[in-house]
Known about the structure:
By secondary structure, this protein is mostly helical. The protein has 9 helices and no strands. The protein has helices at 7-26, 32-47, 52-68, 130-138, 158-168, 191-199, 216-226, 248-256, 276-286. It is globular, with a radius of gyration of 19 Å. The N and C termini lie far apart (40 Å). The model is unreliable at 70-110 (pLDDT under 50).
Amino acid sequence: MAGNVPEQMLEALRKLLAEAKKLAASSPKKNEQLEGCIDKAQALLDGGDISIDAVTKLTAELSALVKGAGGEDGKPAGSSVQKAAPAAAGRTAPAASAGTGPDKKADAAAPEVSNKPVQFTDVKPDAYYYEAVQWAVQKGIASGTTETTFSPDQTCTRAQTITLLWRAAGSPAPKSQDNPFTDIKESAYYYNAALWAAERSIISGPAFKPDDATTRGQLATFLYRNAGSPAVGDKSTFTDVPGDAYYAKPVAWVAAKGIAAGTGEGMFSPDTACTRGQIVTFLYRAK
Length: 287
């Protein structure tokens, strides 16, 4: 069952799959990576058991491969789906899954920067994340999951979150290509973002668990460490944040800075998965 996967996401994947098949058929050289991804996408669509995370992840991978196999401008001839493909933390036109590419040299390319207001059908002007979404898109940090939607309530993975944090920092190149993680391949769209984050002690190995959802406690910790782990006067007063939790100081810091507030009734909900709307809002307030 496709479950709660929006039809727009499925349609975008179908169009991208058709483009990929056309490209693979016309290519004079065999592209095993692209053909393998085509097979996975077809199997996903034919299988019936489809999730948003699976569609998002595969769309990001396929979009990046299609772009990488294209011409000088990175687009296959006649391509019309690059901007429509959903992405993991932004539009997948290697907007790393938010703009992601399997080639680390082109990976996580940021979405195009624009000063124009962005209109998404699922981001209303009165939403708490409205300004944050505008900022993230205009700065090339994130993009929509389709041409008309941002999917603010969609859960973000750790890989997507680190990619967004990396882009917000200006997409700096890691100082070394030494990979401390056992579960990150060099071809991953988030490869450089993860190496950069590891160098800054934002994340550590040996397992990164890129496909796990980012929790509120983890996001607070990422931001706190990215800021240099500054001193915190008082520990968190949230009833669900133990004083000895790894995220206790980060939560106290983001609360003191006005980056994040509680979820009600004196709670922070540190184990709750973060949504795209929440993550861009945290980043916006932390800038």
